[in-house]
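Chapter review: from sequence to fold.
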Amino acid sequence: MRRRVTGIVASLLLASLGTILLVAYVQSARNEAVAGERMVDVLVVTDAIEKGTKAADIEDAVAVRQVPAKVKAEGAIDDVADLNDELVASVELVPGEQVVSTRFVTRQQAARGDVPEGLQEVTVPLEPARALGGRLSAGDTVGVFLSFDPFEINREGDKTPNTSHLELHKVLVTGVQLENAQNLGAQDEGDDEEADQPTPAASGTYLVTLAVDSPSAERIVFAAEHGYVWLSAEPEDADESGTQIVTRGNVYEAEAR
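The token string follows.
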């Protein structure tokens, strides 16, 4: 009986020793394999980066890590300085993934990618005053005002009144171009004496592309052809209430609404 127990114990010890030796061998082989690979630096996301975040603002959400060269993603970078500060993340970046340069695009490219399905884009030429003085960028949302001079409505010469109305709300701007640009010199921000001076107004024609549904595209084109289009800065939290078609007959009633 004692010999049988001794044999069982010996067998268990031998099995345990074999398992330990096998694990040690596998780990050693793994370490040797990794040691033989070239390691490279890459930026890795440590905190989630929201879509639309500027490259200049991601430094606190990334860190440099070493990975085997064979697993480095194509286009992966190892320094935030490798990205243009004005580029933005085209998608949400999650912790653990490598920072890839192709995930960062211009605001205009990002805005085009954000055009909701079913909308179309229409471009209108606008004087600077009608386009927020040129302070527009792709990705902004705007209110669209349509204004009209009187139209003749019959052979007797009867005419409609002058009208203006904030017709469309929170319209996505997907592109801004400037033709015949003049007076675009920026002030030196470090010059305290000129800091309070007004910036010279831009002149030229802004080509503003808007993403809208089909009926809205018709209204915008009609106003651009036969009236006037004005844009306002209209962020997501802007109040849309209290608007109406304004004419000479009710323009002074606005405060009463």
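Two observations follow directly from the output. The longest helix spans residues 2-35. Residues 185-191 have pLDDT under 50 and may be disordered.
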